[in-house]
Design brief:
By secondary structure, this protein is mostly beta strands. The chain has eleven helices and 60 strands. It has a four-stranded antiparallel beta sheet with strand order 5-36-35-34, with no helix packed on it. The longest helix has 22 residues. The termini are far apart. The N terminus and C terminus are likely disordered. InterPro entries: Beta-prop_ATRN-MKLN-like, GBD_ATRN, Kelch-typ_b-propeller, Kelch_1, LE_dom, LMN_ATRN_NET-like_EGF, LZTR1/Attractin, Plexin_repeat. Its main location: membrane.
Length: 839
Amino acid sequence: MFGKKMLLIAVLCTCCSFINFPIFYCFYSLGDTCQSPKSRSVWDRIATTNDVAGRASHASVLIDDAIWNIGGERFSGIRFEDPVVYNITSRSWTPITVEGSLHPPARFDHTLVRYKMKLYMFGGVIDRRNITSELWSFDLHTRKWRKEGDDNKDLMVPPLSVAGHTAHVIDSEMYIFFGYHPEIGFVHNVQIYNFETGRWRFGNTKDQVYGRFRHSSVHYKLESGDAVLIYGGTMWSNSQNNLTDSLMKYDVKHEKWTNLPASGVQLFLHTATVLNGLMIVVGGNGYNVSESRTKQECFSAMVQAYDIACKQWFNISTAVPQLRRYGHTAVATSSELYLLGGFNGKMLNDVWRFVPAECSSATRPEECRSLTDGVKCVFADRTCVKFDPFVSYKQSFLSFVKNESPKSMSECRNTALRQALQVCDEQNDCMSCISEPGCGWCPSGDQCLPNDGECVDGQVMLTTWEKCSLTRDPPPPRPCGMANDCRSCKLLAHCNWYTVEGKPTCIPLEDEILLRKEQLDRELDRVASSNLPLRLPTTPPPIPPGQNLSYCPLPCSSLYTCTQCLQEQKCMWCPSTNRCINMEAYALSFAYGQCHSWVAGHAHGFAFSKSCRLESSNCSAHKTCAECQLSPECGWLDDGSHTGLGNCTQGSAQGPLNPGPNFRQEQWYFVDCPACQCNGHSMCNETRHTLGGIQEVCGECQDNTMGKHCELCAPGYFGDPRNGDHCKPCQCNGQADTCDNLTGACHCRTKDELSVDFIFTFKLKNEDKDKHATEIYLFSIPHKKDTDVTFQISCDGGSQANVALNITSSLFESTPRKMMVIFSIRLFSCFSPREFWLF
């Protein structure tokens, strides 16, 4: 009996040697080591030869048994070959030698498609900072690159510069879906390129959808024509960036969008491929800063499947922990799926193969229908076979009597959602849709959905017949509220960027007219009721209507210095990449930890330069030893004068990167600093006894400086005296005794001129800039010789003040004459012209 068992095992699984790899030929199981029954799918990590550098956000395309990989983000300091090809049969990597001198710049977050005997690469991030609209082609025969189109800067015509988009070839055209643009944010357009004519165009869809970024998409064919499914990604909605779990279908023939059931799992930087009538989604990043998430969800190992015919989601149970990653690529053959590279805290170069379960492993109808691990099966003619939407199967007598179609509905799991979708899907107009309980009509997309769903444009669906239009109205323009910045707003001819209650918003032109009228009416009512002059507007002047984008603030991506970047409220600066980005795009731009630190805030003058210097990746920008060592790659080279002078330079614990001929090791401070640090304005010539012993301190500060380290300018002087720089006298034209010791802003005694017929209001707050103020001077010069002057002062909030009124006139002596001194919170007085003018 024991011998028979051993013989059976030998027959079931035979191991052979093939190019130094163990290959198992399994009869009743799956996997490289026959580790899984055929009723379940299996993942195998493929042992490869000639391994290449790890990469993420690259692009892959399958040609016969070879997977071409181009571009991708990678860590510096390693050899990076591009393009590289993985051969499925030989399980080996091969770098491709490119002929000719023309090469595209390195990039990531781009797309790659094949048309005839060329590869076409579009968009992406080049030089790790610039998003491009370049189109390149690679000839598979000559192995040469050709630039098919330059970078387009015009926002009115395609191609728009995008990254994190997706692309598919349908007939003789390439369809580009969504992506992120550095000036207008999430692109909602479908951009279409004709390979034969070389012309670009926008899709003509009238359905209003939100654009998205780092989503996935798959192309498949139905009896009704070609369709593309878009799943997940990051999108702009509810005034913020959000991960989404939504699924949309794009009908290529009719250029229409429709919503499909959401997965319930929010992801971006995942992959999706079509295998056996299923869209299979692998990995991704599920982290959302607006919600509490666990660390593991940054790198998802989940494998989901969406049944395209049945419109149903389910999980595939054979996912393995090693699949945790995002930024990978996936391609599908006719029977398998391959996953390549990605990021899980390090750049990956591994290859994984997914083999779905086999329908033939089931012998009964219920077993056949329950097989969902990467395959969809149908029980026909007493056999469990792979489902094909283009095949009509032989029906049993019972299913024929029930009028069931084995082609679709009979093989779908009969869930409540499935039933609701089926009922609503059958309704083709608004009236019939809302007549069905639980259904609602979406005008954008002309779609009937269960009323707990969501329309493609995010608008509320119609659920009552009174709201259904009796005529076929033209589609409405894109809602202004779908634009999230000035440029995307002004691209909509019927909208304008307008400040409402202190917040810039995209509103319709007719609403802007009404708001302006309301503001003017309120001001006129105030003037009429209080007999006060009109107030000057405190909000920024409105941007003129029209599509002139020059009125919009500069986009963050066009600012190339830290100081320029921080002057814009919505911008932030990344020192390690020397890049200015929109605050809302931080997670989008640096998914792989490229930004080691960042600088943000809305300050002025010196505060800008100080913030930028503190976070600078340029060592020489740091002016003190303490600041210098905040940057991991920087150290302090002391000049030996014992005054604290020195230079911040790049280096390591062993010494500076470029030490120079006179370098001495005792001058180098990589983890600590010299004593005192007097910035060149004093010396360490005093000692102080502390609990830890004797500590050297700076002597008396010279050169109009003060502070523990002589790091500040003394009163009456301003500047940045650190590391030997000088302090300059305040320049206040005799109107102030002191100034800000950093910026030189004068603490003026005279606040401002009081214009005639104008109310001047100022506030004193408990802030540093007001602490110097003990008295405020204001002056007024009457300009009419025949008019009395009425003078009034009032202090709000029950405050009290000593009010002194001085008059200088040519009627009196040249020195000012004090007319009155009043301890009051309100003063009213009138003076005749003779007190000011000499006739």
